[in-house]
Amino acid sequence: MLTNEEIEIIEGCRRGDVAYQKQLYDTYGPMIKGVCVRYTNDIEEAEDLFHDIILFILTHFEQFDHITSLGGWLKRITVNKVIDYLRHQKTRQSLPMSALEGKIGDDSPDSYDGIPMDVLLGFIQQLPSKYRTAFNLYVVDEFDQATIAEMMQETLSNLRSLISRARKMLRQSIDKYLKNEEYHYE
Q: How many CB atoms are located within 10 Å of the residue 173 CB?
């Protein structure tokens, strides 16, 4: 159910009222920017993507269906636009699928208490693009695997491998960090 504030923002943005557009930007901008930063590994790229998404949102309020919360709708649009961007990015590089063959490793979650959030986010941003995207969609944004596979145009088994491999890479980075060593993916 929408709050009165959400309803006011929606109606104001539909009318093109600058005050409500600013309120949307101030209220939901940090969440949208956070998603952009999580999926890209360059702050300038994330900023450009963020501004493109804000413009898209402001020109597509007629598509809001009132079924979901405003925040949920904005997050869904943001994730979809980021995925589209990554899919069409010409300079995107990823590891070949042959690198995923064989035993991926233990998928059990580990406890990483005491590691600063910015360090963990840095490790996630260092992941190769496909791995970072799969990990973010599944672990951070909590989409189901079938939806992610469709969004990324991957088979379900390839997606599971991407997520598993991303976790393995993150565990390696965290282990190195805990041993006071710096680690970068090759």
A: 23
